[in-house]
Amino acid sequence: MAKIFCVANQKGGVGKTTTTVNLAAGLAKLNQRVLLVDLDPQGNATMGAGINKAGLAASTYEVMLGESDVATARLRSEAGRFDVLPSNRELAGAEVEMVVLDNRERRLKLALAAVDQDYDFILIDCPPALSMLTLNGLCAAHGVIIPMQCEYYALEGLSDLVNTIKKVHANLNQDLKIIGLLRVMFDPRMTLSQQVSAQLEQHFGDKVFKTIIPRNVRLAEAPSYGMPGVTFDPSSKGAQAYIAFGAEMVERIKKM
Ligand code: ATP
Ligand code: MG
């Protein structure tokens, strides 16, 4: 059975998509079978996996509304060697259209159950909002990975996310846990980064992943080539860090 993880943080631009795409590619390098679910109407993870988001025959949108299933809609990222449930701006409409449907928070969970046997990991890239889409991600997952930049405002907003996760755990999904906080875009030359990083370790202990993702321009360049950074430049520091993070996740799920 697949272990399902949401990559979530309602702050925009904190590295959710970069983390989802590169963790997927890193896990694939470790011979894990991976499905990446793009749950963001921006479709950045779809593009980053090398899939053209225009003109999708079926996407996360149709799956959420029950008009298609995951096995039909999924595509292969040849660059990343994982499968993708792709999305584009159509998905924004689902937010409204789902309101009147049964099981509106559990649409994704129910859809993923059908492909559970096909994967070791299912990774869900959430949009930057605590919306009905993100709620579907949280209801479907065993755990949440929270990417964070080590900057002054990093902890701002974290309590909203943690409270939402607690509520989902209490009312909708008892499996859900915070797997960990992932420090991303880390710049070791900045004293502030070091300080915030140390603070996170103090407050959250082993909920902070050991792996730290450095700021690395190759990770930022890779999407314009339709490739995960991990495959675009495997020897870069960013790629190496995401492969190490993949290995850390493989170890973590053994204890789950
Ligand atoms: P959104 O909230 O809009 O979905 P996000 O949280 O998914 O954003 P990303 O799109 O992954 O964030 O990253 C935001 C920007 O930062 C992108 O331009 C990305 O290329 C860049 N970026 C992410 N991680 C790194 C890194 N480790 N080093 C350098 N650039 C990075
Ligand atoms: Mg994103």
Structure description:
A hairpin with a 4-residue loop joins strand 3 (75-77) and strand 4 (82-85). The protein is built from twelve helices and eight strands. It has helices at 16-29, 44-48, 60-64, 70-73, 91-97, 107-113, 132-140, 158-171, 191-204, 217-221, 229-232, 237-254, and strands at 3-7, 34-38, 75-77, 82-85, 121-125, 143-149, 177-186, 208-214. The protein has a single domain (3-255), classed as P-loop containing nucleotide triphosphate hydrolases (Rossmann fold, 3-Layer(aba) Sandwich), CATH 3.40.50. The protein is 41% helix and 18% strand. It is an alpha/beta fold and 256 residues long. Strands 3-4-2-5-1-6-7-8 form an eight-stranded mixed beta sheet, with helices on both faces. The relative contact order is 0.20. The model has no long low-confidence stretch (mean pLDDT 96). The structure holds adenosine-5'-triphosphate and magnesium ion (MG). Adenosine-5'-triphosphate is lined by residues 12-18, 40, 42, 44, 128, 184-185, 213, 215-216, 219-220, 238.
Top CATH class: Alpha Beta
What distance lies between the first and last C-alpha atoms, to the nearest angstrom? 12 Å
Q: Which term fits the overall shape?
A: globular
* Low-confidence segments: none
Any idea what the radius of gyration is?
A: 17 Å
What is the SS-derived class?
Answer: alpha/beta
Strand order in space, largest sheet: 3-4-2-5-1-6-7-8
Strand residue content: 15-25%
CATH fold type: Rossmann fold
How many domain modules?
A: 1
SSE order? EHEHHHEEHHEHEHEHEHHH
The CATH architecture assignment turns out to be 3-Layer(aba) Sandwich
Bound small-molecule species = adenosine-5'-triphosphate, magnesium ion
Helix content class: 40-55%
Q: Give me the CATH superfamily.
A: P-loop containing nucleotide triphosphate hydrolases
Topology, number of strands: 8
